[in-house]
Amino acid sequence: MGLQINIANLIDSLIPIFDNIDNDLFDIRARQAKIIQAERLAATSLAAAKIAHEVNNPLAIIKNYFKIFELKFTNSSTLKEDLKILNDELDRISNIVQQLNNFAPTESKEQVKIDLNSLLADVARILSKSILYNSKIEIHFIPDLDLPALVASSDDIKQIVINIIKNGAEAIHEGGNIYLEAHHKEATTGQASDLRQFQHGQIEIIIRDDGPGIAEEIAANLFDPFISTKEGTGNSGLGLSIVQNIVAKLNGTITCKSSKEQGTSFTIVLPIDGQSAP
Question: Could you give the CA distance from residue 106 to residue 98 in angstroms, rounded to a whole number?
Fold first, then answer.
């Protein structure tokens, strides 16, 4: 009987030891995962800097030819408008390429008052004529006529929206709908007194699709680098991580809800006053 009691006591004393070992192993695995991710990011940054250097040269040549085209076709207002759109997008590509020199850019871009309805309408129109052209995907922009101006970088907002819409389009490549809208969120008493950047409220941008949703195991780490929602496509899995970095730089938040029944919805909340995070 005494032996049984001693064995039981021994087992009881060993349980916390095994628990501690299990916790230690979990911490070791977590640290190893962070080290691996850091090494992959370092390698990606080096490759990105090389790509940025090589891409800038042909971009400059293309931009020069666009200036020549504008001079040659001054009589066609429709063509001039199309050329301006292409030229603006080349400028945006150039800015994105500059960011490749540093995967997590900290430089603040010029912030101006943006007519968000116009910007989102332009993005929807451009994407309808480009990556969604000849597809069975329709993009629906729902304007808010009471939407105030947002202080931010228009390039940053475009990059956020285009990345998310592109993700949605790839998820519903067989056909479906993507909805784009924005709303004003009034500041609460607590926000206005504690956080000056929220004193005029926030802008909420919602991008949703009626696709099949995102798998739970991917959704849990959706914004981590190298996590791709498009398995087997060779996608780098950096798009949403970059989006999250930009949103954080703008002092905003981004969340995602996804289900097989209701599709996927991204919500970006930004301070109207546009104060970037330090």
Answer: 12
* Alpha-carbon gap, residue 176 to 136, rounded angstroms: 7
Candidates 254, 239, 97; CA nearest to 169 is: 239
- Output the CA–CA distances (angstroms, integers) from residue 108 to 25, 57, 168, 204, in the order listed: 40, 24, 28, 21
Q: What is the pLDDT of residues 125-172, one digit of tens each?
A: 988 887 787 788 999 999 999 999 999 999 899 989 998 998 888 888
Structure tokens at 7: 């064995």
Measured at the alpha carbon of residue 156, what is the angle toward residues 122 and 198, in degrees to the nearest 5?
Answer: 105
**How far apart are the C-alpha atoms of 147 and 25, rounded to whole Å?**
51
Q: How many residues are recorded in the chain? A: 278
Q: What is the DSSP string of 195-233?
A: -GGGTT-EEEEEEEE-S----HHHHTTTTSTT--SSTTT
Count the alpha carbons within 13 Å of 138 in the hemisphere toward its beta carbon: 4
